[in-house]
Amino acid sequence: MKAKRIKEWLLPKGGFVFGFFLLICVFFSHNTPNDFYFVSGAVITFFSIGFLGYWINDWSDFKLDLVAKKTNLTNGFTTISKLLIFVVLSAFSVVPWIIILPIDKIVIVSLVGQFALFIIYSCPPIRAKRIPFLGLILDAFYANVIPVNLAFYTACLYFKIEISGVLFSSLVIWAFVYGIRGIIVHHYFDRKNDEISGEYNLFQTFKKQSVFKLTSLFYFLEIAFRTLTLWKLVCFLNPMISENQSLLTHALFVISLVFTLTDIINFFRKLPPNPFASNWNDVFNQKAVICCFLIQFGSANYLFLIISISLLVLLFSFNQWLPFQIFLAQVSLLINHFIYECLYAFRGVLPKSVWRKNIKNWKLTHQKKHKRTVAIFNENKDKYTETFIKGHVDFLPLNKVYYFGKLPVNIFPWGNVFSDNGFLSRFQNITFDFFGIDQRKVFKNKLSRSIKGRKINVVLAEFGTMGAQIYEACELAGVPLVVVFYGYDAWYKSTLDSNILKYKEMFSYSSKVIGVSLDICRQLEKLGCPKEKIEYLPCYVNLRQFSYSDYLGRHQIVLSVGRFSETKSPHLTILAFNEVLKEIPEAKLVLVGKDGGGELFEACHILVKALQIEDKVEFKGILTPREVKNEMDKASVFVQHSITTPINGDKEGTPVSIMEAMASGLPVVATNHAGIAELIKSGENGFLVEEFDYLSMAKQIVYCLNNLELMSEIGKNASHSIYSNELIVNHQKILQGILTESTKK
User: Fold this and answer.
1) 478 — alpha (psi -120 to 50), left (phi > 0) or beta?
2) H-assigned helices in 301-351
3) pLDDT single digits (tens) 21-68
4) Distance (Å, whole) CA 128 – CA 200
């Protein structure tokens, strides 16, 4: 997804900017080493500035994108890593101008303006992207106008060509109008995401027809100024270039007219493409110009040919649809092995400081061959609430292959059970849809071959429902299966009704079946799982992120973290807190989380409004684990009112958020429910009340808030009970042992 995010600007911006840069280089380059260094420096600074702009924008939008579930380049990076990448990109953006590229006052002003617009557009407190119309204008300037004119001007400056004022002005207007149209379309199609995240969008209430008319206006202005610019360019260049080169510029102008005419005819015939979609106008701007000059530029010199091929690969993303991606991966692997082998062979000659670190990496690479490989199967690729599964994917000390999807046909980081080639797998999906073929009919055999082909030693199914889907493929491949039950998959009535027969067959084949609470383990035995196959192992908790912190001196904040699901019953937590306010009016409730499969999130907002306590309750939405830890460090008590749902009989397992709160030294008030009662001894390391008894929960919260020093001791006991629990502390080692032992049977 991040590759797709990067691709969004590489072609629209890259093709447009480099087209004019290469135009000057093709006509005036003497193919000298200096020219090669000049072009290389320009390529480096362009991509660095482009990445930097997106990095700053995504860093500023991180929380909003997380809420809207949009791809964000900065996701997964720490603040220090983000800052380091920012510094590196800034350096690569500026250094080529100092060392290689020509520079004058206009260039300096343009660069300063570009970096200033990055900050003004994206970053608080100004954040101009939220200001009506100004945001559109600034976006067009920093994304189109400044880059294309800076590239064109720099090339002319290097080759000492005097620029026509009319040509420069028409190019500015063309780039501006092109940028405005692009950002209008982007805002229109992104309005739903912006509505979810609460981000401002100028076209939130506009009807499609109104935006279409506005886009059409800019569209016709764009092709008018493009035609003017190209004609002025032909007139400007003709006196300075050869006859053959003159033919190229005229041919380019004619191609532009043909593309323009095609678009106009299609527009008035109301046929696609249109100003909302990618049209011939965009094809010319993004591809035709740069392809035309890259071909001629690359044919002049082998060094320029290397640059040309590299740019084509980057801009047109050949690696997304050709076996080129596989080829590059294999070449990279071979080069790494060759380097490590050489370092190992000459370890006596090279200084120890050089080879020791590399030999360690070399050994780790070769040790992987002797490690067992586990295939982890899960429905969601990276769901924010499933940190316990992310812990398996990131930290389980085995070689890992990650399969995901409702029907788990996708393989991370790339690939598909039908084909490792992205193009072929997409083509497969299209043909299946066209002919009405159910993927499930061929899924079992394909998955079995994929497991065999990747030399999987053992399969770990996250959730019983996933195990029910894949056990037949595992059996066909002859690979052992370990299944983990987390809660709903063991209790939810409709889930059991639809899977009970598959469960029994899965139990029969599985090597081990893990329950994350003793309550679930007892239920698994009732469902027909042999007792000797059942293992109790609480969910994974990242104790490095949720270390103990001192409790004293905190504000009277009640914290709840989790999905807004029926089993967690956040509405009962709100009712309990409403009673707390009668005793402690200055108390505050912070609710972290959002979705849960139902409508409880909005229902809780409605309840808070009805109780008239909106100023006392804060809905934080989706937060990262680091942000959750920050909230825990500020809170006085952690609350969770988990229940057994009265209709479907659904229950929790052992809630991870409660274990995280206890590990952090936060006293917990929760219900006597499922795995929670296995963690908390009421009055010693937390407090338990009965399910649905929100009045008793309120009394217990009041007691906690009025006895902060006593709660400090309770918090210490809670943290100690987590850190002294061998099953929680050594979760990864125990799971690794279960998986490894399963491969020996």
Assistant:
1) left
2) 302-316, 324-345
3) 776 776 777 667 787 788 788 878 887 888 888 788 878 877 776 665
4) 11
Listed as own residue / partner, the contacts of 382-387 with beta carbons closer than 8 Å and 24 or more positions apart are 384/66, 384/622, 384/624, 385/562, 385/563, 385/593, 386/462, 387/540, 387/542, 387/625, 387/656
* CA dist., res. 115 & res. 117, Å (int): 5
- What is the 3 state secondary structure string of 503-563? HHHHHHHCCEEEECCHHHHHHHHHCCCCHHHEEECCCCCCCCCCCCCCCCCCCCEEEEECC
Q: Does residue 614 contact residue 625 with C-beta atoms inside 8 Å?
A: no
| CB hemisphere CA count around 151 (13 angstroms) | 33
Burial of 701 (0-12, 13-18, 19+ CB in 10 A): buried
> Tokens 């994206």 appear where?
122
Q: Burial, 454: exposed, middle or buried (Cβ in 10 Å; 0-12, 13-18, 19+)?
A: middle
Q: What is the DSSP string of 646-684?
A: TTT-----S-HHHHHHHHTT--EEEES-TTHHHH--BTT
Rounded (10°) CA dihedral 205, 210, 214, 215 = 90
Q: How far is CA 593 from CA 29, 115, 241, 389, 417, in A?
A: 58, 36, 64, 18, 33
For residue 518, the model assigns a pLDDT of 94
Structure pTM?
Answer: 0.53
Rounded to an integer, what distance in angstroms lies between the CA atom of residue 659 and that of residue 126?
A: 40
Contact predicate 48/93, CB 8 Å: yes
pLDDT per residue as tens digits for the range 67-92: 655 666 776 677 787 888 888 888 98
Q: HSE-up of 714 (CA within 13 Å, CB side)?
A: 25
Range of lowest pLDDT (190-204, 510-524, 534-548, 678-692)? 190-204
Side chain identity at residue 298, one-letter code: G
Question: Chain centroid to CA 623: how far?
Answer: 14
pLDDT value for 447: 87
What percent of the chain shows pLDDT beyond 90?
A: 29
Q: Is the peptide bond before 397 cis (omega within 30 degrees of 0)?
A: no
Q: Which two tokens stand for residue 109?
A: 């002003």
Integer Cα distance of 17 and 530 in angstroms: 66
The span from the CA of 414 to the CA of 731, in Å, is 28
User: Closest by alpha carbon to 739, among 523, 514, 522?
Assistant: 514
Instruction: Quickly count helices (H) and strands (E) in the chain.
Output: 32, 13
Closest CA to 642 of 594, 587, 693: 693
Which residues 6+ apart lie within 8 Å of 174 measured at CB? 222, 225, 226, 228, 229
Tens of pLDDT, residue by residue over 694-733, are 999 999 999 999 888 888 889 899 999 998 899 999 999 9
DSSP H or E stretch at residue 250: helix 243-268
> Do 48 and 183 form a contact (C-beta atoms < 8 A)?
no
Instruction: Name residues whose C-beta falls within 8 Å of residue 331's C-beta, 6 or more positions apart in sequence.
Output: none
CB-based contact 608:614 (threshold 8 Å): yes
Is residue 183 within 8 Å of residue 243, measured between CB atoms? no
Helix or strand holding residue 172 (H, E): helix 165-189
158: Cβ contacts below 8 Å, ≥ 6 apart: 38, 101, 102
To the nearest 10°, the Cα dihedral for 726, 727, 730, 732? 180
Strand order in the sheet with 687-689: 617-621, 588-592, 557-561, 637-640, 668-671, 687-689
CA 522 vs. chain centroid, Å, equals 38
Pairing of strands 557-561, 637-640: parallel
Cβ atoms of 605 and 619 within 8 Å: the answer is yes
